[in-house]
């Protein structure tokens, strides 16, 4: 059962475009879409990298080199840099006698980026045993437990670092309230965090804050505020791929201008090539009815995720790909089960529920929804899948309630979801 919207519905949706007032202006973001060369070396990097020799004990060199590799990964999305950062950090942990906990925390954050959450938790525990930088370690433990779905433990660590004057606490209490489904409180805390970031004049914190609150503003239907904050991030970092992706989503989902959204993303993927970018481009091409572009981007996605260095980073995307575009439902089930083993969260369980749904194992899917998803997440995409499963199990009252909620989540779900919601 493939969720493919017929071309006639796409045509009608495009011709009867919702009366959404355009918020974006290409003149605002065009200056950031030109040819971009991302520097993946520098005199600073060469200096410290040059100090690393076979059997080197240059602890500072490994730390600095790992940080630079991490920065290159963020700017290019190239997995090689994240793996190189891991190697340097592992060497730093191995040889460190002083401040070892800091290198353990850095390696744990690298593992979080790789979706190696259980290994990250072990490193965080090791750092806690060493004792130094306790608040930083407790913050890390909150982050890891949230990723693993250990929400009671996460709340315990959040309470330990409570400090309304601290940026790190504010962004984490915002994340906690987002998990609880309290978007207004989430935004309130993020706005306080932005005040801290701006007063510190730390450009990195400001960029991170602007893009994150832009996401929250989008969830709240404050699309203009979201757009303005993505632009603020780009003013500080013209290469910021995340902000450009956010603007592309506004153009696609709110304004329903898929060709312009693709133009933005095409500019981004010239230098930033994470697999999920190409899956998004395929989604937009499908909405346009451009099967050739859709196939091209799906091929790029499949080739990219075949790189073993990604490990389990794209399990969720792979499940979605196989359920929608191939007949490999059994493979999708295996990947979903692996993801649950890695992080038993509602997000992971919903992958398995959808795999059962697509193989018409409706009762199994329903059991997962009721035990692991409902009232444990408020993500619209997951609730849409849950509604489809309830419908297959003949639960019309629940479907009706979910449908009413989902009709307000059109921006987050994207225009392609409208037909799915209406068919509930």
From TrEMBL:
TPR repeats mapped onto the chain: 207-240
Entry keyword set: TPR repeat
Matching SMART domains: TPR
Any Pfam family: TPR_8
Stored InterPro entries: TPR-like_helical_dom_sf, TPR_rpt
Name listed for the protein in its UniProt record: Tetratricopeptide repeat protein
Organism: Croceitalea dokdonensis DOKDO 023
């Amino acid at each position: 059962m493939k969720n493919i919207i017929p071309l006639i519905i796409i045509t009608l949706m495009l011709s009867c475009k919702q009366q959404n007032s355009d918020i974006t202006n290409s003149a605002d973001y065009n200056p950031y879409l030109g040819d971009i060369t991302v520097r993946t070396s520098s005199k600073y990097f060469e200096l410290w990298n040059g100090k690393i020799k076979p059997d080197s004990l240059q602890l500072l060199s490994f730390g600095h080199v790992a940080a630079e590799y991490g920065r290159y990964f963020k700017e290019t999305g190239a997995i090689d840099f994240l793996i190189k950062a891991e190697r340097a950090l592992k060497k730093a942990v191995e040889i460190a006698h002083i401040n070892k906990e800091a290198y353990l925390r850095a390696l744990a954050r690298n593992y979080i980026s790789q979706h190696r959450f259980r290994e990250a938790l072990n490193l965080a525990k090791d750092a806690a045993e060493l004792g130094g930088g306790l608040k930083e370690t407790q913050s890390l433990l909150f982050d890891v437990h949230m990723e693993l779905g250990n929400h009671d433990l996460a709340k315990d660590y959040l309470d330990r670092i409570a400090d309304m004057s601290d940026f790190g606490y504010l962004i984490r209490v915002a994340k906690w309230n987002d998990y609880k489904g309290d978007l207004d409180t989430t935004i309130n805390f993020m706005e306080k965090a932005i005040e801290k970031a701006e007063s510190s004049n730390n450009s990195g914190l400001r960029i991170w804050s602007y893009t994150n609150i832009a996401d929250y503003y989008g969830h709240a239907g404050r699309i203009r505020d979201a757009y303005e904050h993505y632009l603020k991030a780009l003013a500080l970092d013209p290469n910021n791929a995340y902000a450009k992706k956010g603007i592309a989503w506004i153009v696609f989902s709110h304004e329903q201008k898929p060709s312009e959204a693709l133009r933005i993303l095409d500019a981004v993927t010239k230098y930033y090539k994470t697999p999920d970018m190409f899956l998004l481009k395929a989604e937009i091409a499908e909405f346009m009815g451009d099967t050739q572009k859709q196939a091209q981007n799906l091929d790029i996605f499949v080739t990219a995720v075949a790189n073993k260095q990604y490990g389990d980073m794209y399990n969720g995307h792979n499940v979605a790909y196989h359920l929608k575009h191939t007949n490999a439902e059994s493979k999708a089930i295996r990947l979903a089960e692996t993801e649950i083993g890695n992080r038993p969260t509602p997000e992971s369980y919903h992958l398995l529920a959808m795999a059962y749904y697509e193989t018409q194992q409706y009762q199994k899917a329903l059991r997962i929804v009721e035990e692991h998803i409902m009232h444990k997440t408020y993500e619209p995409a997951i609730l849409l899948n849950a509604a489809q499963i309830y419908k297959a199990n003949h639960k019309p009252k629940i479907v009706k309630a979910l449908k009413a909620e989902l009709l307000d989540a059109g921006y987050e779900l994207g225009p392609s979801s409208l037909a799915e919601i209406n068919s509930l």
